[in-house]
Structures are given as C-alpha cells and as structure tokens.
Amino acid sequence: xxxxxxxxxxxxxxxxxxxxxxxxxxxxxxxxxxxxxxxxxxxxxxxxxxxxxxxxxxxxxxxxxxxxxxxxxxxxxxxxxxxxx
Length: 85
Known about the structure:
Shape: globular
Low-confidence stretches: none
CATH architecture: Orthogonal Bundle
Structural class: mainly alpha
Mean pLDDT: 87
Number of helices: 5
Radius of gyration: 15 Å
Number of strands: 0
Order of helices and strands: HHHHH
Helix content: 55-70%
Strand content: under 5%
CATH class: Mainly Alpha
Number of domains: 1
CATH topology: Multiheme cytochrome fold
C-alpha cells in the first residue's frame, strides 16, 4: 500500500481529499455501515503487511469511489455527461 500512499502524496488530491473522502460513502449512515468491513480488511493488511499486489478494488467499493469522483467533480462531469448523450 506504500506505493499508493506515495502516489497520493504527490497528486493534486493530496491537499483536498483524504483516503476516506474518496473510498467511503459520503452519507453518514452508509459511511458507518461500510467502515466495519473496509476497516477490518485495512487493519488486517496494515497489521500483517498483507496487501496483495496489485491491489484490486471490489465492485461495491468501485461504485463508491466512482460516485465520490462524480460528486466532487460534478460541475465538470455534468457537462461531459450531458454532451455525451
């Protein structure tokens, strides 16, 4: 996970978004429902240094990530989505 962290530190998102801003749902209830499952796997990975490379995101977390990208970048993405229809 160190390469991913190092990449984030150099990226433009470093100054405006933490890991949970992108990787957890934004609503209070959904966020605290996702935290136990994701937290378990992250705690296990960090504790035992057991992150399998390449790290592969599951379908549910991919949807969360995509929703958060579109949410933060809505002014730009809404124009793209409208023009592609």
